[in-house]
Specification:
79 residues; mainly alpha; 3 helices; 68% helix; elongated
Length: 79
């Protein structure tokens, strides 16, 4: 199987760099309006910036689901 790599500096490469930064920034879920407003605003910016990449929208939606699940589990005492 051939291995393909994103070229450093390409838009695809930058999309994953930005996604990783987004994940790190919002990794610790907080049960506050400020946290959720910030997380959703950042996810919307990511989605808008990479609107020509369907994968970006899928990544953003998957991460919202993950944050919601982790937030729900934290409220229930299940980390």
């Amino acid at each position: 199987m051939a291995v393909a790599k994103f070229l450093k500096g390409s838009e695809e490469y930058q999309m994953f760099v930005d996604y990783w930064a987004l994940v790190q920034r919002h990794y610790s879920v907080e049960d506050t309006d400020e946290y959720w407003k910030s997380a959703l605003a950042d996810l919307n910016k990511f989605d808008e910036k990479y609107s020509n990449y369907p994968l970006a929208q899928k990544l953003a939606l998957a991460y919202v689901d993950e944050l919601e699940e982790r937030g729900k589990n934290a409220r229930c005492g299940q980390n």
